[in-house]
Design a protein that fits this description.
Layout (H helix, E strand, L loop, with lengths): L2 E4 L2 E2 L3 H5 L10 E4 L18 H9 L10 E4 L5 H4 L5 H8 L7 E4 L2 E3 L3 H20 L5 E4 L21 H9 L8 E5 L6 H7 L5 E8 L21 E6 L5 H19 L3 E6 L16 H18 L4 E5 L5 H15 L16 H15 L19 H16 L2
Parallel strand pairs: 1-4, 3-4, 3-7, 7-12, 8-9, 8-11, 9-10, 11-12
Antiparallel strand pairs: 1-2, 5-6
Helix pairs in contact: 2-10, 5-6, 8-9, 8-11, 9-10
Length: about 400
């Protein structure tokens, strides 16, 4: 029997059912799941389609997965929660799409009659998952929701996104006792412009984004480090295409971990985009399902040391159905303690020359804000050769222009 959480309450014997878990799952991992997310449909052949969740939900019925997770029934986000991030006009605009066909909100984003219901359940489901983890009823959770959210701005839907799910959940979590600092890790292929703009003046949220450079939405440059009191609390690492498991783990181990340990978050949220999978049609990156497992383990290690393991993931992108399914499976196994991937073992697969240049650039910008990145090697790092630096700076632009 699966355990269900609905609207903040355990509906069948909280203590009794917390003990009823698959023997190979050592953590209480929640998943937000609901068929109503399929009500959001854009045009035929649009990559952000209901089938994305259908393949994940089918995977959860596999024998080794079926009894290993706590199911969370989402609730709609409340207007007061949405107003923590979005304007009244933004909310009214989305309400006005209800029951209507083919309302185009931007060139990439349109709604169907049930889209707004799905968007409310996406933001509300993530808020509920965060609440349960913060209260200690769950160790961690993965909100398997759609539509995604990290491109949505205060007053504008954008890039397949209606409400900014992660931003809403983070703002709401900061109102709870004991949550004063939140780390948001965004590994989606695309920069989360909406999340950055929501928190770029704040110290209560550290936004860490690894994304493809010279790519949609065009933001997320290395020198975008935040504004006013929030300077240094936005960490952007734009990457050229073609990088894989070892490269991402290098950045997690050598940049994310030192900064996170110095920041000491009370909660970690993850914008889990799987469009960096090596088969993704929008991607150009080479991350494998095992790479996602290793990235997840790195984040869990940070959480165990800083915030009692409190991690909540939210599904963002990922458009190859098989790659999405297989990668989410690996992430969930790590979260539930069904397997333990050692991230360090993947470092050997990195493109070390390319990574040394990326690390040099990142540390040069961020070391003034984070002591853990200042003189990381015990002294001033050797500057990469001029010709190599020029080639690496131009490579993404050349790749973009040659498409």
């Amino acid at each position: 029997m699966r355990m269900w959480i609905q609207e903040g309450l355990l509906t069948i014997g909280e203590e009794q059912n917390l003990g009823k878990r698959e023997m190979n799952a050592t953590k209480r991992t929640g998943i937000v799941e609901d068929p109503r997310y399929a009500g959001h449909c854009m045009e035929e052949d649009h990559p952000e389609c209901p089938e994305r969740l259908a393949v994940i939900y089918a995977m959860l019925e596999e024998p080794e997965m079926k009894e290993s997770f706590t199911l969370i029934t989402p609730r709609p986000a409340e207007r007061e929660e949405l107003l923590l991030v979005h304007s009244q006009d933004h909310i009214r605009r989305l309400i006005n799409t209800e029951g209507k066909e083919n309302v185009y909100l931007d060139p990439d984003t349109r709604t169907s009659p049930l889209s707004h219901e799905a968007a409310l359940l996406a933001a509300g489901g993530l808020c509920l998952a965060v609440e349960q983890v913060a209260k200690g009823l769950l160790d961690n959770a993965f909100a398997l929701i759609r539509p995604p959210g990290h491109h949505a701005e205060r007053d504008k839907p954008k890039g397949f996104c209606l409400y900014n799910n992660v931003a809403v959940a983070a703002r709401r979590a900061l109102l709870a006792p004991g949550v004063n600092r939140i780390l948001i890790v965004d590994w989606d292929l695309h920069h989360g412009n909406g999340i950055q703009h929501c928190f770029e003046k704040d110290r209560e949220v550290l936004y860490f984004s690894i994304h493809r450079s010279f790519f949609y939405p065009g933001s997320g440059g290395l020198r975008e480090v935040g504004k006013k009191d929030g300077k240094g609390y936005t960490v952007n690492i734009p990457l050229p295409p073609g990088l894989g498991d070892g490269d991402y783990i290098t950045l997690f181990e050598q940049i994310l971990k030192p900064v996170a340990f110095e920041y000491k978050p009370d909660l970690i949220l993850v914008g889990a985009g799987f469009d960096i999978h090596f088969q993704d049609p929008l991607g150009g990156m080479r991350v494998t399902p095992k790479g996602f497992a290793a990235m997840t383990r790195s984040i869990l290690q940070i959480a165990e040391q800083c915030c009692k393991g409190r991690v909540v993931m939210a599904l963002e992108g990922g458009y190859n159905l098989a790659g999405l399914r297989d990668s989410v499976r690996e992430v969930l196994k790590e979260m539930a303690g069904m397997q333990f991937t050692d991230p360090v073992e993947m470092l050997a697969t990195a493109d070390h020359r390319r990574m040394s240049y990326v690390l040099w650039r990142v540390r040069r910008v961020l070391r003034r804000y984070w002591k853990s990145l200042d003189n990381h090697s015990g002294g001033e790092e050797e500057k990469p050769a001029l010709l190599y630096r020029v080639r690496e700076r131009l490579a993404p632009l050349i790749n973009y222009l040659s498409r």
